[in-house]
Amino acid sequence: MTEQSAIAAPYSEAEQVGPLVRRVLARNPSPFTYTGTQTYLVGSGCDVAVIDPGPDEAEHIDAILAAIGDARVSAIMCTHTHRDHSPAAAPLAVRTGAPIVGCAPLTLEDDGPRADAAFDAHYRPDRILTDGETVSGDGWTLLAVATPGHTSNHLCYALPETGALFTGDHVMGWSTSVVAPPDGDMSDYMESLAALYRREQDTVYYPAHGPAVEKPRQLVRGMIGHRRQREKQILRQIEAGRHRIDEMIPHMYKGVDERLWPAAGRSVHAHLIDLERREIVVHTDDAWSLHI
After folding, report:
1. Could you tell me which residue, 105 or 5, shows the higher pLDDT?
2. Residues 246 and 212 in one domain
3. Which of 41, 62, 90, 148 has the smallest set of CB atoms within 10 Å of its CB?
């Protein structure tokens, strides 16, 4: 796990992290969530939006409400529905009367070995946003940017007034995202990264986990390069006679916490599915070979 000293972890306290943006950190740290889920409050006037309310934990929900104070909540917005992001939306809606707005519901069963991988089957939005749709309030606007890949329903939210982009789990400053089939899709993920790279207007990213990204396009370019290098690494593993994912992982992830190997295996699987679509590899039973 990356050293947590890279970002302060004052749980249950609202911090001003940028113009119009405050952060409240949930106490759910893990190898997959870094110091925890970061809930963002957008707005400094009579109303606010809440982005990624996080896990349904009383301490965190109380901290969000304390930070909101007397302001009206115009929208509770989720980037996607993994259970470290959206479960607090429903109780927060009950306590504030605010609508749940944002990503579509997704109840795909996911029994994979990831702490954040289970989907929130109880998520029920009042309004689903599609790419380019907006929610606005007193001095702020949030624009939906469709970024499928980490999950099929993932959205980022742009704040045009400041140049900020709330990136959920699509882009994080401390780690790359896990892309886990069957819902996670590497082809979509790469296309979404390319779409963000084209957005020159975004000057800072606020991810759900980890520090703000001050040079976003530089990071995204590096992430695209990293994924292309991972592809080449997988192909070298096949050329070396390792045709199963469980044979590849120990060689590809030497020095990485072995608790993360199952999740890494799912991202490798996503790469292999993408390579198969492009007719670079073929799949027979559990074995992968180069396309002839």
Report:
1. 105
2. no
3. 62
